[in-house]
Hints:
Largest sheet: 9 strands, mixed
Radius of gyration: 30 Å
Structural class: alpha/beta
Strand order of the largest sheet: 3-2-1-4-5-7-10-11-12
Amino acid sequence: xxxxxxxxxxxxxLLRSGKAPAEVAQEVERSLAWVYKWRKRYFDAGNWxxxxxxxxxxxxxxxxxxxxxxxxxxxVRSELEAEAAEPGKLSYIGAHAIHGRLRQKRTAPLPSIxxxxxxxxxxxxxxxxxxxxxxxxxxxxxxPTQPHQxxxxxxxxxxxxxxxxxxxxxxxxxxxxxxxxxxxQYITKRSVDAVQFLLQVWRDLGVPDYTQVDNESxxxxxxxxxGVLGKVLRLGLMVGTELVFSPIRHPESNGSVExxxxxxxxxxxxxxDLPDLPAVHTHSPLFFDAxxxxxxxxxxxxxxPLEMHSSRPVRYLPAGLQLPAKLPLTAGxxxxxxxxxxxxxxMVLNQHWEVxxxxxxxxxxxxxxxxxxxxxxxxxxxxxxxxxxxxxxDYLFPLKEPVLxxxxxxxxxxxxxxxxxxxxxxxxxxxxxxxxxxxxx
Length: 441
């Protein structure tokens, strides 16, 4: 018997012995209303079972799903599971994918995401998620809230069939907020490939505020020369995006594109026979187009990446852009996310930089800012969009060449200029329509 049930029984015994309700309330240390409640319940029922807790479940369930809607949820889940095994079809079977399919079928009333998840659990059609392991180093990171603020870029290697089949470097990029992706595949993995792909990214997705890449030599410029300023770094400065180099050997910091690698591999390489690179080039764009139009993303609240990405004006590369033979240094910023070593140093551009007031294994944010007057390297405790941040170290970065001003065609339009906003919006609308028409051809 629980302690609370014993107190109720004691109160009834005292009442039956002739004590007044006020006396009983004082003795069992409960309110007078409490005594009246349990006295009424006991004497109305005439047995001790009346003192047990009643079920808290509502007598009526007005929000309970109709049986036909429950059947529709299970049927769509089965459809999606079957399609997930088919080449050329997406492999999304969760509640948001089911919600999107029910909406396409004009199912009414349309169940909520939580109702779908509840029905899937009741039907035994879910699998428990694996718990995440805690990270040893807490790295600072950006917190984008709108499309075109942060695009993550990375490479996933895949191998063509046959003994000694060549490795295909699959370059993928995705807008972190809109989930709008693009990709290209190369047999090589050189800086010229990285430059070519980034130009494609900024043509397809627009030029974001930040473009995050990893530390592979094709992006970083290699690991030999101290103070190396490679092609990708120079290209990012030239077009007016702020490159962010992820922490070394920490794919979680590039989590959005890492997750997209899994989707791309599962839907293309694991489901389709790809005998050669032309086959990869044929089937990959089909997946990208289907992904952009899919409404399975939980964070997009029923919208597709295409709808989300098109909700704000885009800053595209100038038409007919031609790169110079040697990319110059341009005024702008480049960022690096690093961990402080045990001797309180970090490695940036193949050079060691002291961070004496930081703690070992502390994640820091490094900003290398170029201006026509020179360059400075500053180390912070958090990312640029944090409300409060502390500069941990400040260094002059030596340069062997001049820094040019950012060209006008690459400058961001200011929202306080009505004319520039109108021009940007018209350019965005024209580009969006052009891209939409191109997908129909």
